[in-house]
């Protein structure tokens, strides 16, 4: 009896969710053509349990969807090479917040990192002379 109720509930859920998923796939966004945003979240006859993406929520789901779309660094945490570093052409640091902690390896063979806080709208110069500027991180919608 319980399995019959579960099957019926799954069939009803599938019928109600199907139009939503077909709408997402038909979107013109290029991200939707690469990523299945409802993968693991829709009941399926072929799958007994959701996979990792199906269990993930919040920032973990955002990160998994971003990686599926080809963005290996969705939070901009990888090391960046300094740009020209002048006041007119500073090294651009993207951030989701109004400030960010940034470390500058001032010389190639330096054994320490010079840490400093960068604030939006306030380009800052490291002690070595390189300029850094904080800008808004553009967060694409992966359908999370
Ligand atoms: Zn420096």
Automatic annotation (TrEMBL):
Zn(2+) binds at residues 104, 106, 126, 128. GO terms for cellular component: mitochondrial envelope; respiratory chain complex IV. This is Cytochrome c oxidase subunit Vb. Keywords: Metal-binding, Zinc. GO terms for molecular function: metal ion binding. InterPro entries: Cyt_c_oxidase_su5b, Cyt_c_oxidase_su5b_sf. It comes from Ridgeia piscesae (Tubeworm). The keyword Zinc applies. One of its GO terms (biological process) is mitochondrial electron transport, cytochrome c to oxygen. It holds the Pfam family COX5B.
């Amino acid at each position: 009896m319980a399995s019959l109720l579960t099957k019926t509930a799954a069939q009803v859920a599938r019928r109600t969710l199907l139009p939503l998923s077909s709408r997402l796939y038909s979107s013109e966004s290029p991200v939707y053509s690469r990523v299945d945003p409802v993968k693991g979240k829709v009941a399926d006859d072929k799958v007994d349990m959701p996979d990792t993406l199906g269990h993930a929520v919040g920032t973990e789901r955002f990160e998994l969807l971003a990686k599926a779309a080809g963005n290996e660094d969705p939070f901009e945490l990888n090391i960046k090479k300094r740009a020209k570093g002048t006041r007119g052409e500073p090294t651009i640091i993207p951030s989701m917040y109004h400030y960010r902690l940034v470390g500058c390896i001032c010389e190639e063979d330096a054994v320490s990192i010079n840490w400093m806080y960068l604030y939006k709208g306030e380009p800052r110069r490291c002690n070595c002379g390189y300029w850094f500027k904080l800008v808004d991180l553009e967060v694409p919608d992966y359908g999370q």
